[in-house]
Amino acid sequence: MIRVALDAMGGDHAPRVEIEGLRLALRDLPATFRVQLVGKPDVIEAELGLYPDIDRARVDIVPASDVVGMGDKPLAAIRRKPNSSLVVGLTLQAKGESDAFISAGNTGAILAGSTVLLGLHNGVERASVATAFPTALGPVLVLDGGANVDCSPRELVCFARLGSVYMRDVMGVASPAVGLLNVGEEDEKGGAVVREAFGALKETNGIRFVGNIEGRDMLAGHAKLGHIDVAVCDGFVGNILLKFYESVGRMLQLLLGKGDPALFRHPDVVRAFEFLDYSQYGGAPLLGVKGISIICHGASPSNAIKHAIRVAVQSVDVQLDQHIQAEFAQGAA
Amino acid sequence: MIRVALDAMGGDHAPRVEIEGLRLALRDLPATFRVQLVGKPDVIEAELGLYPDIDRARVDIVPASDVVGMGDKPLAAIRRKPNSSLVVGLTLQAKGESDAFISAGNTGAILAGSTVLLGLHNGVERASVATAFPTALGPVLVLDGGANVDCSPRELVCFARLGSVYMRDVMGVASPAVGLLNVGEEDEKGGAVVREAFGALKETNGIRFVGNIEGRDMLAGHAKLGHIDVAVCDGFVGNILLKFYESVGRMLQLLLGKGDPALFRHPDVVRAFEFLDYSQYGGAPLLGVKGISIICHGASPSNAIKHAIRVAVQSVDVQLDQHIQAEFAQGAA
Question: Per the CB < 8 Å rule, is B248 touching A248?
Answer without folding.
Answer: yes
